[in-house]
UniProtKB/TrEMBL annotation:
The record marks 230 as: Important for catalytic activity. PROSITE patterns: AP_NUCLEASE_F1_4. Residues 5-260 form the Endonuclease/exonuclease/phosphatase domain. It comes from the Bacteria. This is Exodeoxyribonuclease-3. Belongs to the DNA repair enzymes AP/ExoA family. GO terms for biological process: DNA repair. Probably binds two magnesium or manganese ions per subunit. Keywords: Hydrolase, Magnesium, Manganese, Metal-binding. The keyword Kinase does not apply. The record marks 159 as: Transition state stabilizer.
C-alpha cells in the first residue's frame, strides 16, 4: 500500500497548479489530504477528470467556509469512517475539519488511515492553548488505537518540528510555536506510551531534514530553509511493514503546487 499524505493548501488552488494531477500520477493506493478548504462538491470538482473519480472519497470539511478540511481518498474499499475525534477531549473540535479516519481494506487486513490538520499556534496566547488541547485529543485517539492493536497511521500537517533535525533555523525559532517543548512532548509521548513510530524518520535516518514545508516568501525554498512538520506516524505493527519513505519535493520553485511537499510511504501489507 502506497500512502501519500499532502497538505494541498486549498484543493482548488492545488488543482490549478497541477497538484491533483501529480497526486493522481503518484501510484498511490490511498491519499490523505489536509487544508482542503472546499465543500464536498468543490472537492469532487477538483478531482474530476482523474483516477480519483472512481475512488472512495471521505471528506470532513470545516463548518467555517474556506478553512481547514481533511480528506482520505482510497482506491481500496473503505469499511468504516469516523469524522470526529470523539470523547470529551475531542468534542470541542467537532465541525472544524481537522480530523478524519477511514478503515481501508488492504488484502485481508484493515488499515486505519487518519488525516489530521493541526493549526498553527502562537506562543503565550489562547490560540496556543487551543492547539495544545487539540494535540491532547489526538493523543487520546492514538491511545485507543494502541489499546485496540490496530494497524493504523496518523498522517498530516501537525505544525510541529519534533527535533532540531526537523527545522533548518532551529536556533532562531526557539520559543516560537511549532518548536516549543510543550508541543514536542506530545510526539515524544505518542511514541513512548502508545508505540507510534515516525516511519519517515526511521527509514530516512538522521537529519537535518528532509523538510516538508517552506515559506512562499524569499529564498526559503531555494535555500532549503524549511521545516519538517508533515508526518506519517504508524502504530508499531504497521510501522514494521513500512519499506520506503520519500518527500515529493518539487524540483524548482516554479513547479510547487503547495507550500508543503507530499510524504510518501510504502507499506508491505
Amino acid at each position: 500500500m502506497l500512502l501519500v499524505s499532502a497538505n494541498v493548501n486549498g484543493v482548488r488552488a492545488a488543482e490549478r497548479r497541477g497538484g491533483i494531477s501529480w497526486l493522481a500520477a503518484s501510484g498511490a493506493d490511498v491519499v490523505a489530504l489536509q487544508e482542503v478548504r472546499a465543500s464536498d462538491d468543490q472537492l469532487r470538482a477538483a478531482l474530476s477528470g482523474t483516477v480519483f473519480e472512481s475512488w472512495e472519497v471521505v471528506h470532513a470539511p470545516s463548518d467555517a467556509k474556506g478553512r481547514a478540511g481533511v480528506a482520505v481518498l482510497s482506491r481500496r474499499p473503505v469499511k468504516e469512517v469516523r469524522t470526529e475525534l470523539g470523547g470529551p477531549a475531542g468534542a470541542e473540535f467537532a465541525g472544524q475539519g481537522r480530523w478524519v479516519e477511514a478503515d481501508v481494506l488492504v488484502g485481508g487486513a484493515v488499515v486505519t488511515v487518519a488525516s489530521a490538520y493541526v493549526h498553527t499556534g502562537e506562543a503565550g496566547t489562547p490560540r496556543q492553548e487551543e492547539k495544545q488541547r487539540f494535540l491532547a485529543a489526538l493523543g487520546a485517539r492514538v491511545e485507543a488505537w494502541s489499546a485496540e492493536g490496530r494497524l493504523a497511521v496518523l498522517t498530516g500537517d501537525l505544525n510541529i518540528a519534533h527535533t532540531q533535525d526537523d527545522l533548518k533555523n532551529w536556533k532562531g525559532n526557539r520559543g516560537k510555536s511549532g518548536f516549543l517543548p510543550a508541543e514536542q512532548e506530545h510526539l515524544d509521548r505518542w511514541g513512548a506510551e502508545h508505540g507510534l513510530v515516525d516511519v519517515h524518520r526511521r527509514l530516512h535516518g538522521p537529519g537535518p531534514g528532509p523538510y516538508t514545508w517552506w515559506s512562499w516568501r524569499g529564498q526559503a525554498f531555494d535555500n532549503d530553509a524549511g521545516w519538517r512538520i508533515d508526518y506519517q506516524l504508524a502504530t508499531a505493527p504497521l510501522a514494521a511493514a513500512a519499506t520506503s519513505a520519500t518527500v515529493g519535493r518539487a524540483l524548482t520553485y516554479a513547479e510547487r503546487w503547495s507550500d508543503h511537499a507530499p510524504v510518501l510511504v510504502e507499506y508491505a501489507v
